[in-house]
Amino acid sequence: MTRVYSHPDPAITHLVHNALVSAGIPTVVRGTQPGAAMGEIPPIAAWSEVWISERLDEAEAIVAEIRAEPDSDAPIQTCAACGETNESQFAVCWSCGADLG
Fold first, then answer.
1. Greater confidence, 92 or 101?
2. Among 38, 48, 51, 64, which has the highest number of CB atoms less than 10 A from its own CB?
3. pTM
4. Domain topology for 2-67
Protein backbone atom coordinates (compact mmCIF):
# COMPACT_ATOMS: atom_id res chain seq x y z
CA MET A 1 0.00 0.00 0.00
CA THR A 2 1.08 3.57 -0.69
CA ARG A 3 0.22 6.68 1.31
CA VAL A 4 -1.10 9.35 -1.06
CA TYR A 5 -2.22 12.01 1.41
CA SER A 6 -1.94 13.05 5.06
CA HIS A 7 -3.35 15.98 7.03
CA PRO A 8 -3.73 16.91 10.71
CA ASP A 9 -7.51 17.32 10.28
CA PRO A 10 -9.29 13.99 9.68
CA ALA A 11 -12.19 15.84 8.02
CA ILE A 12 -9.87 17.06 5.26
CA THR A 13 -8.42 13.58 4.91
CA HIS A 14 -11.92 12.20 4.45
CA LEU A 15 -12.61 14.75 1.68
CA VAL A 16 -9.63 13.32 -0.23
CA HIS A 17 -10.77 9.78 0.57
CA ASN A 18 -14.27 10.56 -0.79
CA ALA A 19 -12.85 12.05 -4.00
CA LEU A 20 -10.74 8.94 -4.61
CA VAL A 21 -13.62 6.57 -3.84
CA SER A 22 -15.85 8.59 -6.22
CA ALA A 23 -13.22 7.95 -8.92
CA GLY A 24 -13.43 4.22 -8.19
CA ILE A 25 -10.11 4.00 -6.33
CA PRO A 26 -10.34 1.87 -3.17
CA THR A 27 -8.75 3.58 -0.17
CA VAL A 28 -7.95 3.01 3.48
CA VAL A 29 -8.01 5.91 5.96
CA ARG A 30 -5.72 5.58 8.98
CA GLY A 31 -5.10 7.71 12.05
CA THR A 32 -8.47 9.39 12.38
CA GLN A 33 -8.28 9.42 16.20
CA PRO A 34 -4.85 10.84 17.00
CA GLY A 35 -5.86 12.09 20.46
CA ALA A 36 -4.90 8.81 22.08
CA ALA A 37 -1.28 9.24 20.99
CA MET A 38 -0.87 12.93 21.88
CA GLY A 39 2.38 13.53 23.72
CA GLU A 40 3.69 10.06 22.97
CA ILE A 41 4.66 10.59 19.33
CA PRO A 42 5.69 13.54 17.15
CA PRO A 43 2.66 15.61 16.03
CA ILE A 44 3.12 14.80 12.32
CA ALA A 45 3.03 11.07 13.15
CA ALA A 46 -0.52 11.55 14.47
CA TRP A 47 -1.87 12.97 11.19
CA SER A 48 -4.65 11.06 9.45
CA GLU A 49 -3.64 9.40 6.18
CA VAL A 50 -5.16 8.04 2.97
CA TRP A 51 -3.58 4.85 1.60
CA ILE A 52 -4.20 3.04 -1.70
CA SER A 53 -3.00 -0.18 -3.28
CA GLU A 54 -3.77 0.46 -6.95
CA ARG A 55 -4.00 3.19 -9.61
CA LEU A 56 -1.31 5.33 -7.99
CA ASP A 57 -0.85 7.74 -10.92
CA GLU A 58 -4.56 8.48 -11.13
CA ALA A 59 -4.82 8.92 -7.34
CA GLU A 60 -1.86 11.31 -7.26
CA ALA A 61 -3.44 13.39 -10.04
CA ILE A 62 -6.71 13.65 -8.08
CA VAL A 63 -4.86 14.63 -4.90
CA ALA A 64 -2.84 17.24 -6.81
CA GLU A 65 -6.06 18.73 -8.21
CA ILE A 66 -7.57 18.91 -4.72
CA ARG A 67 -4.46 20.56 -3.30
CA ALA A 68 -4.17 23.11 -6.14
CA GLU A 69 -4.67 26.73 -5.18
CA PRO A 70 -7.92 28.28 -6.39
CA ASP A 71 -7.75 30.63 -9.36
CA SER A 72 -6.82 34.02 -7.94
CA ASP A 73 -8.00 35.77 -11.11
CA ALA A 74 -11.65 34.91 -10.49
CA PRO A 75 -13.99 37.64 -11.72
CA ILE A 76 -15.35 39.93 -9.01
CA GLN A 77 -18.73 41.61 -8.89
CA THR A 78 -19.82 44.51 -6.67
CA CYS A 79 -23.09 44.39 -4.77
CA ALA A 80 -25.39 47.24 -5.84
CA ALA A 81 -27.04 47.32 -2.40
CA CYS A 82 -24.02 47.55 -0.09
CA GLY A 83 -20.98 47.93 -2.37
CA GLU A 84 -19.27 44.77 -1.08
CA THR A 85 -17.18 42.70 -3.52
CA ASN A 86 -18.22 39.12 -4.25
CA GLU A 87 -16.75 36.43 -6.47
CA SER A 88 -18.76 35.93 -9.63
CA GLN A 89 -19.95 32.40 -8.82
CA PHE A 90 -22.20 33.73 -6.02
CA ALA A 91 -25.80 34.73 -6.70
CA VAL A 92 -26.31 36.44 -3.33
CA CYS A 93 -24.09 38.99 -1.57
CA TRP A 94 -22.27 37.42 1.35
CA SER A 95 -22.49 40.67 3.33
CA CYS A 96 -26.10 41.83 2.99
CA GLY A 97 -27.90 38.96 1.25
CA ALA A 98 -28.99 41.04 -1.75
CA ASP A 99 -29.48 39.36 -5.11
CA LEU A 100 -26.42 39.82 -7.33
CA GLY A 101 -28.14 38.74 -10.54
1. 92
2. 48
3. 0.62
4. Alpha-Beta Plaits (3.30.70)
